[in-house]
Amino acid sequence: MPELPEVEALAGFLREHALGAVIGRIDVAALSVLKTFEPPITEMQGKDITDAARFGKHLAVQAGGLWMITHLSRGGWLRWTDNPSATPPKPGKGPLALRVHLFTPEGLTPAFDLTEAGTKKRLAVWVVRDPQEVPGIARLGPDALEVTELDFAEILRSTTARIKNSIVDQSLLAGVGNAYSDEILHLAKLSPFATSKSLSDAQIHTLYEAMRTLLLDAVDRSAGQDAARLKGEKRSGMRVHARTGLPCPVCGDTVREVSFADRSFQYCPTCQTGGKVLADRRLSRLVK
User: Which residue has the higher pLDDT, 263 or 176?
Assistant: First the structure.
């Protein structure tokens, strides 16, 4: 799933390539992707793109006083093409969900596609006059790169949830998902099962610094990357996430995994849990 660094990079990519362009035809290949119908998405046609922004893990494009906001979910992505087909796509065929044709000030006619891999279709698009009309944005907590350390500490002490769950809860903290939370906890040398409320001041400080260091580094590495290369850039920077069975680059211990019904997370026992291996079962519990 694209998280804060990738969505920030996609917004930057659109600011560089799409600002000032006029939106032409919008092809909707998967009607289910649209979560709003008033105003209609066709109302954006003929309007100049004036901004591209990020709200948590939501990607947004502004044109003519309207916002087209996208949550890419687990399998979604944005793809840019300089020479799009003039033929409208056939509904339900392939990963394409929506295509936005553009006319640039230089006379070019590129397009950007919203695509989704896999069979579970969760990619969502809203057209609104105010981003706060999107329920997921209205519920967002402070952004992970804007929250102060004091507010971060208050957020963690307000919940009894596991720290892994706390930092991916978008209503508490916006922008961090499963992959970067694994990396942040590894850098901070904290167990994913540590209770948020029980963390010491020193642990909270370490976690806050790890979060900022890792996210800022990922944003820097992603900035200026072509949209098509961002996924590879994300994977190249991972030390434990999606590296089950490989050696930890810090201590050499084997990276382990805990699986849930529809997701998993990775960690290093030596770096994070004092050598204890967390039980890898659907109802995951710490090995006693």
Answer: 176
- The CB density around residue 190, as the number of other CB atoms within 10 Å, is 22
- The answer to whether the CB of 62 falls within 8 A of the CB of 129 is no
CATH code linked to domain 149-272: 1.10.8.50
Beta bridge partners of 265: 258
Residues 6 or more apart whose Cβ sits within 8 Å of residue 164:
181, 185, 192, 193, 265
Secondary structure of the chain: what % helix, strand, coil (to 5)?
30, 25, 45
Tell me how crowded residue 203 is: count the other CB atoms within 10 A of its CB.
16
Mean pLDDT to the nearest integer, 137-164: 97
Domain at 4-138, CATH from 3.20.190.10, 3.10.129.10, 3.30.300.130, 3.40.50.11220: 3.20.190.10
Q: Are 86 and 7 in contact (CB under 8 A)?
A: no
Q: What is the pLDDT of residue 90?
A: 87
Quote the CA–CA distance of 277 and 209 in Å, as a whole number: 26
Return the domain boundaries, the chain: 4-138, 149-272
